[in-house]
Write a structure and sequence with these properties.
Number of domains: 2
Largest sheet: 5 strands, antiparallel
Strand order of the largest sheet: 1-8-3-6-9
CATH topology of the largest domain: Jelly Rolls
Order of helices and strands: EEEEEEEEHEHHHHHHHHH
Helix content: 40-55%
Number of helices: 10
């Protein structure tokens, strides 16, 4: 656990929001109980998982930037096929109660998994940057992000509850999803096509596209792009290859294409990752 930032007074007060980058082990485990609401943002390469909270269970792939919601005082059971890394945003329940009162909404938080929300992602990346840079914005900035996070969580949950229940949909089984992910990883430097990816599962292209989207939570082309960006990020941090070599290794057409995609997905240019190497 990281040291308490100097901008927080040393007393029994729990901050409205703090952040922790945590390794997640391979295999089955129960998450520890926490008296705060915890959002787990996935960092890095996709990892197939199963998740159980009470009777609520779901399977799928954890993708970079997706998050799950673990309400305060609850535990969840995870099964991971590979080690992973999570960015944990821990939110003080008192702030959610206060925000719910102002917004006239139910303050109860329900468990969720494989959620994608650009606003919540940005809050997570800003909190992470604050931690890495030694909290230059001070406590007031973190508290502002905490208020924004509480309001967005409540609004998103309320809107989701108003949508009509969707009909059950079919998705790729976990073993077929893993087979596609393994194929993509092994052939990332190639010009991948839907025809060859569908052939891995034995489905037609049109059927495969829908089954994959429901299993992974995004279209095939988006998933492959995320994998390419993650491969490029790892190679840049190693600092051994040129931008042109890395672009080819990750399957990009040229270095400028790689740079554009990295800025869109990660908010950083290749040169900034080289600086961290």
């Amino acid at each position: 656990m990281t040291a308490r930032p100097s901008c927080y007074p040393v007393r029994d007060e729990v901050p409205l929001l703090d952040v922790l980058t945590s390794p997640v082990p391979q295999g089955r485990f129960d998450s520890p109980l926490d008296d705060r609401h915890v959002l787990c943002l996935h960092l890095g390469a996709p990892v197939p998982v199963s998740y159980r909270a009470g009777r609520y269970e779901r399977q799928g792939a954890r993708l970079h930037g997706q998050f799950c919601v673990v309400p305060a005082g609850s535990s969840t059971r995870w099964t991971l096929t590979a080690p992973a890394t999570s960015l944990l945003l821990r939110l003080n329940p008192s702030l959610l109660q206060d925000a719910a009162g102002h917004m006239r909404l139910d303050p109860g938080l329900v468990p969720a998994i494989h959620i994608r929300d650009p606003q919540i992602e940005r809050i997570g990346w800003m909190m992470r940057a604050e931690e890495q840079d030694g909290h230059p914005g001070g406590r007031i900035f973190a508290d502002s992000l905490a208020s924004a996070l509480a309001a967005r969580l409540l609004l998103r949950q309320t809107l989701a509850s108003l949508r009509p229940a969707a009909a059950p949909v079919r998705a790729l089984p976990a073993w077929q999803l893993q087979a596609v992910q393994d194929y993509v990883e092994a052939n990332l430097d190639q010009d991948l096509t839907l025809v060859e990816l569908a052939a891995v599962t034995g489905f037609s292209v049109s059927h495969f596209k829908e089954l994959f989207r429901h299993a992974a939570g995004m279209p095939v082309h988006r998933y492959v792009l995320i994998c390419r960006v993650e491969r490029a990020r790892q190679l840049l941090l190693q600092g051994k290859l040129s931008n042109t070599e890395i672009a080819l290794e990750a399957g990009f057409a040229h270095p400028s294409h790689m740079a554009r995609c990295m800025r869109q997905l990660l908010g950083l240019a290749p040169a900034q990752f080289r600086a961290k190497a």
